[in-house]
Amino acid sequence: GFTADSHPAFRCNPTEGKTERRNGPPTQITVTVEPQGASGDLVGYLCFILPEEKDFSTYYKITCTSR
C-alpha cells in the first residue's frame, strides 16, 4: 500500500498479500490516482514490506501532475 505521508489521491489494488519469491511469476499491482479537485504535483510512496526480510523491503516514489 501507500505510506501515510502519500497524497490521499493514490490507491492500489491489491493492498496486501504475498508475492512470489525470486524467479516466480510477476505480481501485478494496479495504481490509480483520483485527485478530486487537487492540482499540482501529487506524490505517493508505494511500499512493499517483506516481514521475513525487512532489509529487502522496497519503496517506489510515484509523482503525478494534476491540472
Please tell me about this protein's structure:
By secondary structure, this protein is an all-beta fold. It is 0% helix and 39% strand. The chain has no helices and 4 strands. It has a two-stranded antiparallel sheet. The radius of gyration is 14 Å and the shape is elongated. The chain starts with 9 loop residues before the first strand and ends with a strand. The model has no long low-confidence stretch (mean pLDDT 90).
Helix content: under 10%
Structural class, judged by helices and strands? mainly beta
Radius of gyration: 14 Å
The helix count comes to: 0
Q: What is the distance, rounded to the nearest whole angstrom, between the alpha carbons of the first and last residues?
A: 25 Å
Percent in strands: 35-45%
* Uncertain residue ranges: none
Order of helices and strands: EEEE
Average pLDDT = 90
Essential attributes:
two-stranded antiparallel sheet
Which helices and strands occur, and which strands form pairs?
Blueprint (H helix, E strand, L loop, with lengths): L9 E4 L16 E4 L6 E9 L9 E9 L1
Antiparallel strand pairs: 1-2, 3-4
